[in-house]
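Purpose: get a first structural picture of the assembly so the mutagenesis plan has something to point at.
Setup: two entries, given in the order below. No constraints added.
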Amino acid sequence: MLATYLELIQKRGPRALAYAVFSLIAEKEPLVIIVENNDEKQMYEDILEEVVETFEMRKPPSSDIKLAPYEVITKEEYYLNWKKMGGKRLIFTEEDKNLICPGLDHLEKIVNELITGKSRDPVSRLAIRISDILACLEVAKDYFLDYKEGKISEKDFMSLIKSRFPKVEDAEFARAILKTLYDS
Amino acid sequence: MLVKTLSTKQIEMLRAMYEEKFMRIYEVSKWATDKELQSRLNVIASLYKGARKNAVKQILKYVDGKKSVWDIAIAMREDGHVVSPEDVIDILEKCRREGIVRVRTVAQVALPKAEVYAKTTIAEADKVIEQLKPEAEVVSQNIEILKKELESVLSTLETQQVEVVPEEARAISPLKIVEDTLKLKASGVINSLFQIDKWISALLIATTEGDPIVLFSPKPVDINQAEIAAASSVILATSSKYVESFGKKPIRRILVLADKGIMVIKPLINDYLLVSLINREAKLGIVLRDIEWISNEITNVLQAKVSS
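Result (structure tokens, whole complex):
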């Protein structure tokens, strides 16, 4: 039985949780997040709820970023009801966590740093950090669109982004999110 | 006895896990570069030989976020790839571990159904088994009723000794025959084989002692199960002996090529063997892949092993 978030990360790796959080940001459709067992289901529900609530509180009114609606289920629940999942976006946290995705690589580092760090209440800190990155995307989006239209160079774009974020990792994550959301 | 070994939940889970994997819809990572995809595909291809190696190199052409595994298997076979649906799953799961594909969703349509006739050597048991419809929705309701009917049938068999093979000569109990047949029918494994492979005209599961357990066919066939089971058991035993003398054990399969058809004998787990009767015009490569796939599935079902 898993008692702490640290144990969850130690058992599954930070990338599994990062994949669930990344999917909330990157996907538009309702998500079905599939975890290994009931312990993990409870933990994922707590963490994702904290992320969503914190983001809703901290996001600028003008922000057009919306987190995807989701439900968390166990593998057993999935297999017993898989026929009802037709057409839904499935997020298998364990099996699909290796997906090649630069945004996921950056978020994995952030999750690992916060959950395995010595800080108190790592989940709140994770939720705040992600929410702050997403809140800044509103301005960063304009830089990205300027860069896409060729008005600024990639180097200038990255310096503008980095000036908005205190940590390089956050800036890299923000860039990856922008590419995912607006680079169509 | 049956209640202890064959729970409704186990049957449902077995069928769900079996069906679900063929209905998965994968998509290629939109973040991966062509170079990354190619390099990781090469790693996966190095794990295979022959036809499947070529299938690995081509598989991403078929992964479009819309086609299910089943659809991909059909499309690849039509394009000349020698792959079973299980091969496609196997390749895609390796691609998944390498991070180049992920499961997007599952198809809303259920696995296509083919008619399956099951025949054991116990007429009374056949009647009960026939009641088990292949559709998953009715399996859970039927299993409870069938359990009661089976117990009644089997107790009648015990008292009346209504058997084709005398009890003392039978290496496997009627209960085991009925239970294994029920598990295989409920799993949907045989349905899917007959749906995708039109060349296999019958499948006989028998013991290595030569006792037939059950004959499955897509349409009613008049085949003497006891004779085929006995002959196959002798062929397998004799071949094993000679193969052992060459130091080439174990036997993977034995092909008997006749003018009007092909018989493939394949040892399964422990004391079981699978005999497949195949039409002469079959594409042998594909049929052999299908037999490999289905024998693994049958083994899983007989052991009640649930794998994703």
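The CA atoms of residues 66 and 126 of chain A lie 18 Å apart.
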